[in-house]
Structures are given as structure tokens and as C-alpha cells.
Amino acid sequence: MTFHARLAAAGLMLAALGAGACSPEGGRTAEGEAAGAEPIAASADVHAFRIGALQAAALRDGALALPANDPEMSPWPPAQTAVLLTTAGVQDGTIHLSIQPLLVRDGERTVLIDAGAGGQMGTENRLPASLRAAGVEPGQVTDVLISHAHGDHIGGLTAGGALAFPNATIRMDAATWEEIRVEPRLAELTRLITPKVQTFAAGAAITPAITVVALPGHTAGHSGFEIASGEERLLYIGDALHSSIVSVRAPELRNAWDADSAMAIRTRAGLLDRGVRDGLRIYGVHFPFPGVGRFKRGPDGFSWVPEGGEVAPAGPVAAAAE
Known about the structure:
The protein is an alpha+beta fold. About 20% of the residues lie in helices and about 25% in strands. Belongs to the metallo-beta-lactamase superfamily. This is Glyoxylase, beta-lactamase superfamily II.
């Protein structure tokens, strides 16, 4: 089985369940914050920021490095991918994907969006330390929201044969939960999390500030999350777009990790169009850490502009979809 087929199969990524514009963080406001909550501390693995009155933080879990010219490692066509990377200034021919779950404090709720890889897939399992560096103990997490059932998003739900977030309700789309439950290799994970799982549907309000957004194509039930406070909005896009280079600059390219390629391509195109049209603030869980920024449209297509940074020149790229 190829690497990208394994990456799309949550069971194989959990072979060892027991293993281990933006306002910077500043003055606190009462709206949307728990009484007495301390500001989230920033560090090398924690990027603290605000969504209106809400406290949020990108939490580093790990990273994937995939050789673009290896069809067993890269989900995109090697030739087009190599051109895209080179044009964007990537000299090592490698697709770099970060993994950074998102922490949000919404009133009395401490919400973690996706749970990281849990040390699987060659990742570092930094999430537990990042969470504590942000001033949050695992037992203080009240809700874990799962975008979909792939291992780099559910691998961190358990640790050492127990729940990693023992007091949290684990929330996911009903189709995502079904995908987990019917996978024999996830039987132990299913046993551990079943008492904690609650399913949702697109449009559901998880907290007063967090709403489920359907982003179909990558997996059945693949979900994003819109986080709103006052006039500010942030859209967590899950795996609708993986790479800030390939997915953004050539959204029409087939991605072998997508269950429904045609639908996933339409979802990517729609996100990019809406992102530019509405000036959406975006959270890319696999974009370069910390994954916060906006899309920009230029004469040669779309590009990613990280918050506080500048986008690399896109240049002309003729990347035909396969």
C-alpha cells in the first residue's frame, strides 16, 4: 500500500494507540472568556491570538515532509507539484505540512479542534506539551471537535491506553463517527471514546461562538468550524486544503487523499473564492505554523498570505488537473 493510501486510512495511522486583521494576545475582555481565565501563554510551540474577544492558540503537534517526486509519498502529480514548489521558492523538492490543532476558549468551554497524530506517522507528538505550555491541562479541555477520521486528526485522542482528554466531550459528524466505528483496526479507539462521543450535523452550534461548516469531498462528513466573536470570524478549514502552496495555487489538481476528488476540488475552489470575496480569516491546520492568514487573488491565481507575513511570488504556473 502506498504512503498516501496509508495516510488516508485512519486505522494504519493508529497502529500503536498506546504510544505516545489580528489582535495579538493582550488585554483581556469579559466577553467570551471564562471567569478568572489567564491569558494563553505564547512560546515556540504556541501561537496565542484573538478572535474578537475569544482567546485562541495554534498548538504545534508535528510535521510531515513528503518528497514531491515520489508518487507513493505525495498525493499530487509529481511534475506539477515540483513546478509549484520551485516557483514558490521551495528548493528541497519537499512538501512540508505542519500539524497544529487549534485551542479556543469560549466562555466556560475550553475547546480543542482536532487532536493531532499522537506521535504516529513519524510526527513528534508535541501536542500534550504545547497544550500545557499554553496553560491548559488535558483534564481542563471540555470539548474536542474532530474535522474527520484520519489519523493525524484523531491519533491524539488516546494516550497510554486511556483517554488523552478525560473530561472532554468528543464531537464529530455522524458520518465521521460511523467511519471510525466500522474500522476493525480502530476497535480499541472506538471502545475508549464511545462514552464521550456526541455527533453533530453541518450548521450545528457547538458553543455560542463555534458553528460546524460542511466542507465535503475529503472524507464523508468532513467538517470545518467557523469561530465568531463580535465582527471577527475565523474559519478552520481542516483538510479541505492541505498545502499552502499546492492546494492554494492549483486547487484543480487531483489529491489522492480525497475520497471524492471532484467534490473536493469544488470545495477548494469555493473556499478560495469565498475567502477572497469575504476577506475571510483562515486557519489551515496543515499550513506553515501557526496557520493563520488569508487568501489573495492575483493575475496568476490564488496565494496564501500568513498573518504578519508576505506571500512569495506566485508566478505563472500551468498545472493541469489529472
